[in-house]
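It is worth pausing here to work through a concrete case rather than discussing structure prediction in the abstract. The textbook approach is simple: state the sequence, then state the predicted structure, then interpret. We follow exactly that order.
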Amino acid sequence: MITTGEFFVEEEEGPVNMQSRRLLTGVICAILLLANMGAAVMAQTPVAGGTPAGGPAVSATPGQPLKMMLLPKFLGILPFDQAHQGAEEAAKELGNPTALDFVGPTAENSVAGQIEFLTNAPAGDYNVVMMSNNSGDQIVPAAKAAQEAGVKVVTWDSPIPNGEGESVFVAQVDFTETGKVMADMALSILGDEGGKFAILSASPDAANQNAWIAAMQEALKDPKYSKLELLEIVYGDDQSEKSTEQAEALISKYPDMKLIMAPTSVGIVSAAKAVQDEGLCDSIKVSGLGVPSEMLEYTKNGCAPEFALWSFVDLGYLTYYVSYLLGTGAIQGVAGESFTAGRLGDYTITKDPTRPDVDARRILMGPFTVYNKDNVEAAAK
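Step two, the predicted structure:
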């Protein structure tokens, strides 16, 4: 910024010199005014379009062609199919003339498969890849290479832990809150007497479930959870057969276990079926994160008295809106930007408070719904 202190004129006073000095002062003031106006405009104008952080909510301009990939952890489970449904709904609203590609690896090949899909995205001329990351930080080289090639990488459901190669993360719920919700459900199910429980998670590289479990472990430090004892954390890799085997192994290993907490829609169904098949629903309960239509039987018969989830349809819908806005340059993915996501309303991008030590941004969807025998049937329909 220019200031008048940078100009100094010294000469003998006189009628002509006085006029010259007044003229020079006027020129300086004009320069100052124009420079400051220019600085203000530059401060309010992002590169490549969009609106400034802190400005009004941006609305999408429909009908722009973008090639977009929806990449779940793997194919073949209901929550990811529901996310696809929501993304297609948003695509129809936004009138993208290019069809959405819903692709993914198998559960057995999830990590290597995701890396391969993302690595090949630039060659496939994709503008945006929307990925539920199941590869931890192993995905970073492929994500950074895709970004450098001009592909936006938007994560949803599960982020890149260190944030590298990620434009923005669309979080279903606050990950810290997830841990407390699971702790509260465990306490509600086991009562004041508490008891021993185990966690059946998905894969060791699933950033979302690792964060939820860490948040639950932190929540358990509160004295009100002092009678809850975590026995072990096991992994079923979000495969039904392996998750069932892990649940059966827990039942055999810990005869005094009272609860299996499964923060995975595959794991919770597998655990509930294992407990039910063993005829142990009266002594061992199941809880965690599950889809109402898949948990209806187990909740009504008391095997899984409470569980929680959010709308995966809405998550897919929101993720597509965010990705379309980024891909068209309407937003840049910086903290403070606000935008409108169709029927879900307005959102603001923030720094991710659950990853405070890395450069990562988050859009928070929410909310949680806790299901029990009173509301699970309506939700399942």
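Step three, interpretation. The first strand starts at residue 68 and ends at 71. The longest helix spans residues 15-44.
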